[in-house]
Input
Amino acid sequence: MSKLMPPAHPFDDDKLHEECGIFGVVGVTDAANFVALGLHALQHRGQEAGGIVSHDAEQGFNSARRFGYVRDNFTSQSLMKTLPGPLAIGHVRYSTAGSKGPTQIRDVQPFFGEFSMGGAAIAHNGNITNADALRRELIERGSIFQSSSDSECIIHLMARSLQRNIPERMEDALRRVEGAFSVVAMTRTKLIGVRDPLGVRPLVLGKIGDGWCLSSETCALDIIGAEFVREIDPGEMVVITADGVESVRPFRPRKPRFCIFEHVYFSRPDSILGGRSVYETRRQIGVELAREAPVDADLVCPVPDSGTPAAIGFSQESGIPYAMGIIRNQYMGRTFIEPTEQIRNMGVRLKLNVNRALIKGKRVILVDDSVVRGTTSRKIKEMILDAGAAEVHFRIASPPTAWPCFYGVDTPQREKLLAATMSEDEMRDHLQVDSLRFISLDGLYRAVGEDKGRNPSQPQYCDACFSGEYPVEPSDMIEKGFRLKAAE
Amino acid sequence: MSKLMPPAHPFDDDKLHEECGIFGVVGVTDAANFVALGLHALQHRGQEAGGIVSHDAEQGFNSARRFGYVRDNFTSQSLMKTLPGPLAIGHVRYSTAGSKGPTQIRDVQPFFGEFSMGGAAIAHNGNITNADALRRELIERGSIFQSSSDSECIIHLMARSLQRNIPERMEDALRRVEGAFSVVAMTRTKLIGVRDPLGVRPLVLGKIGDGWCLSSETCALDIIGAEFVREIDPGEMVVITADGVESVRPFRPRKPRFCIFEHVYFSRPDSILGGRSVYETRRQIGVELAREAPVDADLVCPVPDSGTPAAIGFSQESGIPYAMGIIRNQYMGRTFIEPTEQIRNMGVRLKLNVNRALIKGKRVILVDDSVVRGTTSRKIKEMILDAGAAEVHFRIASPPTAWPCFYGVDTPQREKLLAATMSEDEMRDHLQVDSLRFISLDGLYRAVGEDKGRNPSQPQYCDACFSGEYPVEPSDMIEKGFRLKAAE
Amino acid sequence: MSKLMPPAHPFDDDKLHEECGIFGVVGVTDAANFVALGLHALQHRGQEAGGIVSHDAEQGFNSARRFGYVRDNFTSQSLMKTLPGPLAIGHVRYSTAGSKGPTQIRDVQPFFGEFSMGGAAIAHNGNITNADALRRELIERGSIFQSSSDSECIIHLMARSLQRNIPERMEDALRRVEGAFSVVAMTRTKLIGVRDPLGVRPLVLGKIGDGWCLSSETCALDIIGAEFVREIDPGEMVVITADGVESVRPFRPRKPRFCIFEHVYFSRPDSILGGRSVYETRRQIGVELAREAPVDADLVCPVPDSGTPAAIGFSQESGIPYAMGIIRNQYMGRTFIEPTEQIRNMGVRLKLNVNRALIKGKRVILVDDSVVRGTTSRKIKEMILDAGAAEVHFRIASPPTAWPCFYGVDTPQREKLLAATMSEDEMRDHLQVDSLRFISLDGLYRAVGEDKGRNPSQPQYCDACFSGEYPVEPSDMIEKGFRLKAAE
Amino acid sequence: MSKLMPPAHPFDDDKLHEECGIFGVVGVTDAANFVALGLHALQHRGQEAGGIVSHDAEQGFNSARRFGYVRDNFTSQSLMKTLPGPLAIGHVRYSTAGSKGPTQIRDVQPFFGEFSMGGAAIAHNGNITNADALRRELIERGSIFQSSSDSECIIHLMARSLQRNIPERMEDALRRVEGAFSVVAMTRTKLIGVRDPLGVRPLVLGKIGDGWCLSSETCALDIIGAEFVREIDPGEMVVITADGVESVRPFRPRKPRFCIFEHVYFSRPDSILGGRSVYETRRQIGVELAREAPVDADLVCPVPDSGTPAAIGFSQESGIPYAMGIIRNQYMGRTFIEPTEQIRNMGVRLKLNVNRALIKGKRVILVDDSVVRGTTSRKIKEMILDAGAAEVHFRIASPPTAWPCFYGVDTPQREKLLAATMSEDEMRDHLQVDSLRFISLDGLYRAVGEDKGRNPSQPQYCDACFSGEYPVEPSDMIEKGFRLKAAE
Output
């Protein structure tokens, strides 16, 4: 249907992107304000659009969905006073470039449904790998979809459940769903959180005063002053009311497979994942990388901002001075509406500038978190050489990204991934740098605390983007022609 | 859910209001442009919001829904180029003040649904009298409603039909529906029009080049240069493609009961209803009124603009000069956002001003189309007397409005209708005018061409708002406590 | 400088347009609200933009200027509360199509200047015929103009006056100015009104409670409930404070020459000009026209809405029935932003529709107020013939418009005026109508109450647009090459 | 006059702020696009609003002024195509909180004036210390000011000059002006740059293809790919055309006094000032600080982002590991419109979060660039202690800020400056930290390359904010009661 806000990406930032952040709170005055703050802290998980649903005993359910940053929308009195009540959930969303066309406001979560026992709203982080099949089945049986989102299946499955209360309808629905899902949902009185059996996406529980909150990451607990209680377990569902937290296990138990890329890039460095500081893990990746791939040079420079902790670790392990060789423009956003040709051609120069006086004549190690298509890496290399660097050495804080993610991350098609078609040496030649080294998969596992590295027979994490080993079969994609590694 | 545009009504204009106008066209280039023009011509049937859905072979279905006038939204290139294709339908909507709260954009038609055999959009003029019951049943069975509109039931009933094509699913759906409905709908290739068995609301067929169009009124055919072919019959469904117009009769035949108030006020004076010029009918009402209720006076003045044709007729029959005693501000719209207190108190003076020099010392006959609550009539009388009129005589071009309409017209609750609680003489005293006379029901029937007046055993029109005789039982309302005339 | 809102005129409405309406009030609470209402009543004098300046003892001067209708801007609480205080003036403005490019917000009045003795704001209706020369002189001496408006000269002349108070500075300034001007101005404590020595444009004084107001027309007094006191005399300046109205005569006395076209078209029919009802004058024009140019026909139809009073007069004098043969769409505004090609081609059909059933087979007299370029007249004639009229006779309520106005009216260049190049008979043939007759200049003077018609040696009105006799030499235009009648 | 955009500062970021950045270019196609990019790179010098004026041979001068970031306004095709031509200048502006009320669009530069020899536009960085006196004199002589900006004096002085060309008029004007000014101006054919005799604010010259550009800082040359040619000298004026750069010296020569705070905080780290890398200077400040004020601790953490280079230097000199103890939210902007109470109370937590897992139990050195009122320092200290830090030591990369700046920097009134009323030890106690040390004034001079430190008899820089020694007498402020150091 109608296209509301065609975003332009003037430069390819060449990262994998988490598609969503979710947050919910119950038992506080003006819960929506807390949700807005939580979503602001989770903005790195989705910058395109956001939504909040709240419930108030008198005014019932209210909702607002907006394109743009949380801080530009959900901070104004006039909007926030339309979202009263002690219970609210929210969602921030990243647009999946290319594949499905521009996002429309009707694709922005939370989704809401009116059931015979009352309304419910849900916010979903992850991706349903059998969504196409479910959608076809539901339409055939008379459901009318309002969005192109895979997440909408959940609410239709709930509408058709024969259970007599909403948490049980949600259990029914989620048992039909395959893939990765962390869900925050609400009824008129309950805040609900669920993680899929593998626990691919994060979800944490916090306590704020007499109330409770659920969040994708701990950094969003900090901003509202909530205390971190614990992670929701893989396969666990919590139903939270004023009386406390009830926990159920609706799914068949499985070995967890948390997404290792959350440690590498998606999560914020001040969050705590699996009991580990994300910042410290990333610094440790830099340490491992300096051990695995040392090089003689004058400066260690991060590609800002995501390469910074690993660059610090690399500098500390190697003894080569750390320096800000590339400066980031703080006033840069992601997208432009209808940009001029010149803006479109500027690319990464709109966002990054080389610290010319520092770089000139130096042998520079650039530490970046990942290489996806290699487009940005190439431009950065050119900027560094233009500024007179003597040598450029890339050190990458993740293994080669050779496979797409189907669990809630926006990845290019496989053939666009540089590592899908080239070896490390070929990539070095392609990027025309003096050296290029990725951390090994075992090195990455060591950095996240697995001292013996990766267990090949039963990997401790989901690392499908590096290994091609998918813990949940991507059935919709296979139907569309995607070939698994084994099948190649 | 969230409230998007709370309209303020600074003055009670004290009219009954048609709730919708509908228009569709197939077989022309850029059909949506024609729909926009048609809706502009039908704007008097709904000023609050409008929507258009189009279909293009390459780009599929597109839609745009906006608050405000057609001319302020659906005239810009940038919007209209998002609505390509040779097939489009549209809808303008009036807000039903008070009862259901402010309209939200999701309540704006056309409604769209994706079925297993493809998408369909519908636009509905009228009101479904068993909508509450249908909605309860559909939700119980798993449908998720997106709007508060009664019309959304139709699309959910269609989604659940077992028929294999969309026109047959629409037949299925409409056979479950009670009340008044003229519907314009579209699939990827077909334009569909239906009128309920009583034919309460109008719907006409037009020919434009090799294409066809459907419209609430003929005045919208004129604006696009289409030729008026015929009215859609009560109980008829037409399915129009490039190959022509196919007609079916899905309902059990009944005696038609077209809304007589369309002649009095709703339709535009340049439209043709049932083969009669609306303007001429209204002029004839004035003639009948001059015969039934003559009075000695100096001037016959219309209450602009709707009283004008009847005032002309009254003047011609009585020989009393016609004059513009009240001048209407042409720059007046209907609603204000967040108006100042002073604007709120201005009332009708924002819109009408007395032609003081003309009125002073004169005996004035004011011809208005109807009296609903009497609030505006009273203010107009005060303005006229303030300007120095010697006498004020009201002549009303419709019988006393004593009953609410449940077939797609916004009417106050019965107790708010002046004629529900007062006789003609009591109303005269209440309004403090020198005389007040309504046309008789038989006089009105004569003016629309029924020379013998109304047939009490089988009335030729729906005149429930005057007579309290409802041709379709308003079952939702009865459940909510409304008492029919017989039951009083 | 930057172009803010390029308006598109989808159809040439082929009228002369008054360029401004002005209003001011002192001595009431929240004066700006009254000004907003007054400007709403004067909207017909300028629809493109409006502005209000108010003064409050605590908050000083505040101002707001907006494109669009008064009712869409100056009705909201949030805007109006930024305009506090007991003293305010305002202005509505028509854009002068073509000649000077699109209006910018900085061209919207009132204009404001900070002088050493305090601030002042002025609003001007009319046109300064020596503005170009004044502007050149002022710039040469160091003034910096902010707008392209001729009216800005007044405020710069005031800034350079050596007088010690603002009213005297205004006298100084206006003595340098040639042309037509009605001005409403304000200081921190005074409301000031001035009319040029000829009194070309109207200005009236009203009383509201303990306060006073100034307005272009009396209809704006009615809307706020003010009492009409008197017209400001040609050449008079009034300085109004809480203590009352002081009157001075700063100019050399001259014989008044009020604009006769204000009676024909510009002013609202419910206003009183020179002690005469505008409506009654227009009706009388119709009477004169029926006497001067009778014709045998079936119907007298106005071209809505401006032809209506003359059509009523024509019908009454001729005995031929009055009828609404052309229906006006009430939801039509003047301009579109970036309209589609189709909208652009629609022309007058967007606004007017023929009442086909009424017109068919009839001999129709169409009464219009004026013919400027003849473009709309031609399209209306075609619509009437398409609807099956047997004959079309045009009767025009003003003499042929053969000369441009330089006193505050937007007129096409002389060569675009139909009457500048054709005789009445040639115009009839050009428009292809059965007959075409204009009222004579003497007939028009009789209709405004000059029983002996026009005094050729000392005309009682400014009728330059008909006669080519300009009471003030248009010196800027002559410098640009305009040739006066005598010089031809 | 009317208030257009009241910005709310939800947290006091407690920094001094540069008030402006300026940029101009001549001799390139679509110069305004280059100006937009340049202003984007200078956004840190003014985030509230921006403006661009361009000149095109056919379309003359065009301008656009907008609130908000450059990237949100001056990137769209639709706006930029209204700014054609090979010559353009632009300005970004910071709002001076409190003192003068909210900025209005008419205060946004460049300012434009139409002179008898053609138009000119100017953009000014700095502050005119005798602006009040000049304004009074100009108004007395008939000038009408449009803004509250001190910079508007320049254009009025130019309008009154008797010189026959614009560059000479600008010389005339600037010789009347006292204070700090770097100016970029344009006529129809010339790009002009001027720096005041002391050279307080920066201005550099660049070459781009056959064209030239002027910029506040070199980082804006980098973004458009221009080559850095040289700094404009203090007291120099350059007049640039297609034919090249002409240099004149309109002022009496003086010893330069460049603003030393540009090195500390205002300029971007990737700019080059006086031949020195800003980043390297800041790192060196950290080195000096580590020597002057060593402390035993576990971690050196910057207060992001401005403390980062000095923290790196401190870590390198002290050997204490560098770490990101505080994480900055990248999606934080400066201001909110009408924020909720909760947002207002959040303060710095909206922007910064402590890396709790890292900080816990550690002795932390926090390196910040300055302490102004101390409000933010106190909140950061609390966040760090809440996270469990064992000790908190502040090290500040500038001397105590004890005096306001009157040369184009937004500073609080003197009594609000913490260092104006407290010694270093008192500040430490006030902030309740374990230690607090500022770099010495001599240490700062050493870091900028003056090996012998500050020359007290003839300081090499303007350091009035630290020393209270003002190189230009702030005459307007003295008239308002400001007391110089000597007078205390």
User: Anything to note?
Assistant: Chain A has two domains: 17-259, 276-453. The longest strand of chain A covers residues 118-128. Chain A has a mean pLDDT of 91.
